[in-house]
Structure formats: C-alpha cells, structure tokens
Input
Amino acid sequence: MGKVALISGSAGPLEPTNLYGSDNYDPNNSHVILALIRKFHEAKQASAKKVLVWGAAVTISVLGTENRVWLFGSRVDDALRGGEIDLLIETEAVFANRAQTLCRLYGALIYALDECKLDILLKDARTRDAPVFNIAKRTGVVL
Output
C-alpha cells in the first residue's frame, strides 16, 4: 500500500474500495477512479508527460494519429439532464474513406464505453467547416 491518509488528526493506510470489497486497480477493467489512480501513478513513475485515458487511447488506436476530442451537448449542460454522449473528434489527418473510419471509430468507442448511446462528429483535414463543429467547440469540453 504505502499511502497514508490523515483524517481529523488520525493517520492510517488508505485503500479505496467499492461496495463489494477491494478493487484491483486494473487500468482496463477496474472502477474509473481507481483505474485513473493507477494510470497516473504509473505515468509518474515513468516520468511520462501525458496520460492517455480510455477515450483518447481508443481514438488514437483507430485513427492512428493525435486528435482532439470535445464532449458537447446534453452531457455538459446540467439543465438538459444527459442523453446520448455527443463527441466531436478533430484531427489533422486525411482519411481515404471517412465513412469507414467513422464506422471503425464508432464501433471501438461503443465497445470501450460499454455500449452507451453515442453520437460522433469526425472532422479530418478535408472536412469543410460547418456550424455544428463551431457549436460543439464553443459549448463543449475538451477531453
């Protein structure tokens, strides 16, 4: 363990748990916070300058290049109460078959996000600018 928590003047070992007992901190199958703790811990040990979390890792593996991801729509507006996950994914790459790339990206994200309802906008270097992209960037949150 090695970590110590100081709560109201008393110290003791800190081990995050869930309702069913301890978690294994697995970066792919653990609870989100615990998996993130492990990812950041390993990144610090390796002196890494970046930590890829699930969505970014998935988009890079499918697109094969760096990209930017915005979460927008009802998931970032408390008044709207959620709904589908709306993502804008922007890259400087050019894809010979954008439709095929979008389908592969959609499938990989659905699998990674445990079959959540998902809407994706993909903007590559050849995609013309459109109002929807500007709205997503202006109202969204960069992940």
Remarks:
- The domain at 54-142 is CATH 3.30.460.10 (Beta Polymerase; domain 2).
- DSSP finds four helices and eight strands in the chain.
